[in-house]
Amino acid sequence: MRNFIRIISVSLALVGLSACVSPPEKKDFSALQANHPRSIVIVPVTNNSTQVDAPDNFLVTLPVPLAEKGYYVFPVHMVKRVMEDEGLADADLVHSADATKVAGLFGADAVLFANIQRWDSRYVVLSTTTTVDIDYTLKSGRTGETLWHDQVQTVYSPQAQNSGGHPLAFLVTQLIVAAMERASPSYLPLANQANSVAFFAPGHGIPTGPYDPMFGKDYQ
Questions:
Q1: With CB atoms 3.0 to 4.6 Å apart as the test, which of 73, 131, 154, 199 could cross-link to 63 if both were Cys?
Q2: CA–CA dist 173, 167 (Å, integer)
Q3: From first to last of its 220 residues, what are the pLDDT tens digits of the chain?
Q4: Are strands 72-73 and 39-42 parallel, antiparallel or unpaired?
């Protein structure tokens, strides 16, 4: 039921985002289904943005949706600590390492690598546009091959509503709305929305895992 609600929510989100993103194309899941992973280890996130706290903030959004898809997910803070103990404290170093060796540290069937392409909020004239762009790659813990890949960009640009009032009052309201978004960008809501699209979008998101009743049935 939770997955059904999530899928409906994602479908509605895609409708709302139709002006800024294209509907996701159907994917080939043959490699993932042939590998049938049961457990996933999520390694520290790499970062191409200028926001130094973005990787840690985004990392904690990943376990819940993957668990809801029916996979066992290793606790991300424990994973990060083990990586540090193994001399893999640098996220870029982890991403360049052999996926089979990373998985072997935990006995995981697959490894999820996530890279932040954009995590920024830009102010132009009277509007602020916040963008989150994430690249996801799931690799086999046994062979190192790529099982699934996706890249999702979500964008939010709040607009004040002019209900026929004074134009100057509307401009002031728009300025306030833009300033509020600039002061406190909607990064985490956009990150959660990106995860929902990547993992749950019909015909596009990752197939359900073995701990979900829909396992083996959603993309037959």
A1: 73
A2: 10
A3: 454 445 434 444 444 443 344 445 677 888 888 899 999 999 999 999 998 999 999 999 999 999 999 999 999 999 999 999 988 889 999 999 999 999 999 999 999 999 999 998 877 666 778 899 999 999 999 999 999 999 999 998 766 444 445 555 545 554 555 555 555 566 888 999 999 999 998 877 888 999 988 787 776 5
A4: parallel
- What is the C-alpha separation between 220 and 199, in angstroms, rounded? 17
Residue by residue, DSSP assigns 87-147 as T--SHHHHHHS-HHHHHHTTT-SEEEEEEEEEEEEEEETTEEEEEEEEEEEEEETTT--EE
Domain locations in the chain? Answer: 26-198
Pull the structure tokens for residue 40. 């996933």
At residue 5, the 3 state secondary structure works out as helix
Cβ-count burial 76-91 (b if 16+ within 10 Å, e if not): beebbeebeeeebeeb
- Of 200, 194, 152, residue with least CA distance to 5: 200
Q: Which two tokens stand for residue 186?
A: 């909607």
- What b/e readout covers 98-123, taking b as 16+ CB neighbours within 10 angstroms? ebeebbebbebbbbbbbbbbbbbbee
Token pair, residue 159, equals 């607009």
Backbone angles phi, psi at 72, to 5 degrees: -80, 130
Residue appearing with tokens 């982890």: 94
Tell me, which fold does domain 26-198 have in CATH? Rossmann fold (3.40.50)
